[in-house]
Amino acid sequence: MSKIDQVRAEMMTAMKQKDKPRKDALSLLLSALKNKAIDKRAELTEQEENDIVLHEMKQARETLESAPADRQDIIDECNTRLAVYSEFAPQQMDETKINGVLDEVLAELGLEAPGKQDKGRIMKALMPRVKGRADGGLVNRLVQQRLQQ
Question: From CA 123, how far away is CA 126, in angstroms rounded?
């Protein structure tokens, strides 16, 4: 079952339960998924669907961060969107899994004591392996820590 079908089914459930905030969040996500499929003129792959969900989550986080503190309606809407989108987001890797992949990359590159000049090579090899499954900021921080050891 594609994410479009899952989101559509959840949206119908939310409509039956008269849960307007959830229905609105699901409607936005469904629109984003459908628009991408229309632009592509083909079915979306699972990775593309996950990328869209993560992109929508990122937009909601950015809106939340830029919302004025006195606009509780915007803050509540963004929190609802994030909660709903997280149900459809791929499982994120934790620090230990990322460090495991980082160890593999360092072994493949033959770097036992990597320096700051090696960061570009490490990131170039590491990011395709964790893309969509790990937060880029966390990956960058872990690589930086490894370089300082």
Answer: 5
